[in-house]
Amino acid sequence: MKKLSILTAGILMVFSLAIVTFYTSCTDPCKDVSCLNAGTCVDGTCNCASGFEGDDCGTEIRAKFKGPWTAADGCSLSGSASYGVSVSSGTGIFDVKITNVWNSFVNSVNASVSGTTITILTQEPDNDGFTVSGTGTINAAGNSITWSYTVTDTGSGISDVCTSTWTN
Fold first, then answer.
1. Mapping DSSP to helix (H, G, I), strand (E, B) and coil, where does residue 18 land?
2. Are 67 and 87 in contact (CB under 8 A)?
3. Does residue 146 share a domain with residue 78?
4. Which domain range does residue 14 map to?
5. What share of the chain is helix, strand, coil (3-state, %, to 5)?
6. CB within 8 A of 87, min separation 6: which ones?
7. Which of 30, 37, 72, 69 is nearest to 56 (CA)?
8. Are residues 42 and 101 in the same domain?
């Protein structure tokens, strides 16, 4: 009889342990996680849709580039200059507009962002025979962009090659 009670107690203990293990393994790690902008939760972490970032996917990837900046240029032809520029939203989630590039362009220059890189594809913002193109990288703190860009006079083919640091 004693063997039967020990066996029964052992079976009950194993059965109870199995129930507890099964129950705790079924908790949903995404139960209290809210992912914005079409982000999806996987194992308690948001996987963001293209164009968004952050713990809850609530930040546009271009947000870190937007705002006023102070540019400090060093150019091969035009020399050194310090001036204000501004980055604002463009038409698509990856697009931005930059005002006052090269301290000269009247119209905005269009650029696109990807991660920590911002790219200006070749364009003629003022339709005046001067094109601009280049790339920049924002630092981890989000307070400085290091640029390399070129402004070309399409009539003469002469280019002003610039390196620039933008700070906010």
1. helix
2. yes
3. yes
4. 2-59
5. 20, 45, 35
6. 65, 66, 67, 69, 96, 97, 98, 111
7. 37
8. no
Give the separation between CA 7 and CA 14, rounded to whole angstroms.
11
List of residues 6+ apart from 151 with CB closer than 8 A: 75, 102, 104, 130, 131, 132, 159, 160, 162
**Residue 116 confidence (pLDDT) above 70:** yes
pTM above 0.70, yes or no: yes
CATH number at residue 132: 2.40.128.420
User: Which secondary-structure segment (H or E) carries 148?
Assistant: strand 144-153
No. of helices (H) and no. of strands (E), the chain: 1, 12
- Nearest CA-CA partner of 147 in 90, 91, 81: 81
Using CB atoms within 10 A of its CB, is residue 44 exposed (0-12), middle (13-18) or buried (19+)?
exposed
Domain identity same for 100 and 54: no
Residues 41-94: pLDDT tens digits? 999 999 999 999 999 999 999 999 999 999 999 999 999 999 999 999 999 999
Domain with residue 45: its CATH number is 2.10.25
- Supply 40's token pair: 């999806």
What angle (nearest 5°) sits at the alpha carbon of residue 81, between those of residues 76 and 86?
115
